[in-house]
Amino acid sequence: WKVLPQGFKNSPTLFDEALHRDLAVFRVQHPSLILLQYVDDLLLAS
């Protein structure tokens, strides 16, 4: 999916699940980094 309809109630959950899958390898390769997620915003800190 690329775009979800406005008011779609499950979009934060779907985004979180997709992001978790996409970043799984990255998190293993960079264990000292902290990745904070708020809805669809990301903050990468080291």
Explain this structure:
The protein is an alpha+beta fold. The protein is 41% helix and 22% strand. It contains one helix and two strands. A two-stranded antiparallel ribbon has the order 1-2. Residues 1-46 form the Reverse transcriptase domain. This is Retroviral-like pol protein. InterPro entries: DNA/RNA_pol_sf (IPR043502), Rev_trsase/Diguanyl_cyclase (IPR043128), RT_dom (IPR000477). Pfam families: RVT_1 (PF00078).
Tell me the major beta sheet. Answer: 2 strands, antiparallel
Order of helices and strands: HEE
- Counted beta strands: 2
**What radius of gyration results from the CA coordinates?**
12 Å
Percentage of helical residues?
40-55%
Average pLDDT, all residues: 76
Number of continuous helical runs:
1
* Cα shape: elongated
Give the structural class. alpha+beta
Q: Report the sheet-strand fraction.
A: 15-25%
Q: Write down the domain tally.
A: 1
Poorly predicted runs of 5 or more residues: none
Span from first to last CA? 31 Å
- How are the strands of the largest sheet arranged? 1-2
